[in-house]
Amino acid sequence: VNGLMTLGFAGARQQTELCNESLMLEKLPTCGKSFEEMMKKVDSKKWCNLTEFIMYYDNFTQCTEREANNASCFWPNPLAEGFITGIHKQFFSNCTSEKVHWEDPPDEILITLILIPVMLTCAMITLVVWCSKRSDIL
Fold it and tell me: DSSP readout, 77-119?
């Protein structure tokens, strides 16, 4: 039992190693350089289209996570997030989300779009009532 407890405490001690932030900050730029090399393959006009580079971005994300874990740091952490934000600023600063500004159609079109279904509904009700009164013919 003591041997098992010793192994358990040794495992717990290994998991509680302190984060080596300087090692992580030293290694993260290699992920950035790799991502930069891969992004050179993508036309810069397509940098806002995620489908064009999703695999490259996934590799970049996995690299940053791996380097953070190798330095005994959790991921994401503030330093890694700062690095990732820098990469985003470098490549995606011109990608703004364009919000669609919805406007009502002109009154003439709006009235027409409202009146057509109302008139069709009235016509159908009238037809049903008329047919129900004339059931002897049908």
Answer: -HHHHHHHHHHHHHHHTT--PPPP---PPPHHHHHHHHHHHHH
